[in-house]
Every structure is written in structure tokens, then in C-alpha cells.
């Protein structure tokens, strides 16, 4: 019965779309010569047709999604609607609760299964709570407790393993943590850190506080970062690209300094608004497109790229993460292959993403990119009106290239077997 209902709905929507598109074509053919009123009418008609086309696409995806659901999943959707569930209730019914201990994700099949469970959850939320899911992705609503708890639990597990590995005599590495109050006013050795962590489990909170640079960030916070950098105020940020450095006689790789007059003249006098966006996008995402909105992203160890280069202070710690992070469900989304694209974020060796949830969201957006685009454009237009961007828009480049920055990431390929 439900499948028949969806098929009838699809036929009705398709007929309406064809009728409207036919009217648009007839109107276009009859218009000669065009006047200003004709152009305004055509523009309005095109917008209406585009809106109908998006609705057709949305309905078609809903039908396809429903058709692919198991009987159990369909029953959960019906219960959610009948009983007025919140998103948390649906996740609880899917047994996606805050884990009590570390999840065993070191086997590729376990990692894939966990991602599949979250993929199903995102798929069901797109049917039962589409507005809440969209608000989560955009950073306008805090992520579900289950998602935050799982990602943070796995981070703690990974960091604990990293601290213990740093104390191994054969291939340990140095972690410099500002925890001198714990060791009588001095930095503890790697062995002391590991021993203290094993003896006092609550010590992990201090370790995380010393290592964590950024985690969940809402859309308001991301908007402020974007606004501050576009207006060229506050502290230093990002790296000067080779293109900007050559044009302005600056040193590539150095940070932009808003208090520096030469930098300010270059920023406002030589770079177009779109080029300023590209400078920011090397290391910052546009509001609504930051993966930090999802509650799955963590910046750890440090934020200076030079500290992660071979031979530098954080290189060995990064090397351990590069080999071991996936055992805990984490990967580096902005790797060297992602940054090879013309429009992409630079490599960020400090940025680690919790794969099961983040990849489920990423695949959801990849599947619905044509529906996500007008949402982004509307949100950015609202921000520009608020910021007074009549003569200097804030999202010129992003409107054209948002897909590049969102989808050009390094997706891990889990090994077939682990020792």
C-alpha cells in the first residue's frame, strides 16, 4: 500500500513538472521582442520552474530511499511518525547509544558495519526529521547526543593509546604537554605521562585538554571566523599563497597579519573578494560547510603546519596517527591527495575525522548535492544581507566552487586484513 502511494505521488509530481516546463517553453517561444517586464516575468517563471524541479528531485529521492529500506526500517519510520519521536528516540531505537567503552573498529568489517549503521540512521532521519538533520549538518542545531558521545569516546581511546605508545622504549615519540602542575612544576617524561594515565584514569581529561585544539563548532562560530578574516581583523591567520605573495611582493607561507599595512593593502587593494575567499579557504571552511558542524571532527596536537613536517616536533606523533588512527575510526580528511585539486583545503595533519558518522553524512550530501545547493545559497545570502555586502560580497567564490571544498577529501581505503 505504501509503495503504491509513493508511485502515485511520483506520477502526480511528474505530471505537474512537465506541465510547468511545457508552459515555460511555450512562453519563451511566444515572447518577441522581449521587454523589461517580459524579462522579469521570465526570470520569475524560471525560478518557479527551478523550485518545482527541486521538489520533484526531493520527492524522487524520498521514493528511492523508501524503496531501499528494510521492513524493520520502515516500521521504525511509521512508529516515529505515529508516536512523535525526536531524532534521539530514533537513534535509540537503532541502538546507536553512547558507548560505554571503546568500540572495536580495528577490523575493516567492523568499521564498515559501524558506518553502515550510521548511514541507515541518516537515511531514516532524512525521512522522519529532515529539518533537524539539515540543521545538524549546517551547524544550526547541536549534533545528537549519541553522535557526540561516540565520536568523543573514540577520541579518548585513540589519545590514550597514543600516550601509551609514546612511552614505548623501541619506537616511542615525544608529546609535549603543558601539564607541569602534575609533575611538580616541570614537564613529565613520556613514561611518567603513561604511568600517571594508567594509575589515574581521570587524568585523561587533562591530557585531552592539552592536546585538543578544536572540536564541535556551530554555524555562528564559523560565520564569525569567516567574517573576521574577510574583514581582515583580529589575529594572524592562514598562510599567504604563492599567487598572492607574487602579486603583492610578500613572502609565501608566512601568515596574513591584519595589523601589517602591506598585508592590508594587498588584501583590499590587490585581491578580489573571490580571491580573498580562496586565501581563507586554504585552512578554513565557509559557514555551513565546516565538517566541525557535524561533531565528528577534532584538531589535535597543534595547528602550525611546520611542526608536522619531517624532523619537526610533531612529525612522529602524526606518523603514529597516520598508521593507527583508523583502528579507532579516525582518518585525515584533508590529506595530500585532497589538496592536489585546484580548489581544496590544504593538507591538515592535525585534523582527524570520525569515519562512521562523518562519512555517512558526507555520502548523504553527495547524493543530495543538487538539493543542498539552494539551501547554502539562501543561507549565505542571509549572512551577506546581515553583514552589508552590497559592494563586497562574501561568498562569490564559494557559490561556484562549494562542491570542490566539500567533496575533495581523502577517503580512507581500509586494509583487507590487519595483523
UniProtKB/TrEMBL annotation:
Q: Which InterPro entries match?
A: DD-CPase-like, VanY-like_core_dom, Zn_M74/Hedgehog-like
Could you tell me which residue ranges the D-alanyl-D-alanine carboxypeptidase-like core domain spans?
212-356
- PROSITE patterns the record matches: PROKAR_LIPOPROTEIN
Record-linked Gene3D superfamilies: 3.30.1380.10
Tell me the superkingdom of the source: Bacteria
Entry's Gene Ontology BP terms: proteolysis
**SUPFAM superfamilies for the chain:** Hedgehog/DD-peptidase
Entry GO MF terms: peptidase activity
Name it: M15 family metallopeptidase
Q: What organism does the UniProt record list as the source?
A: Lujinxingia vulgaris
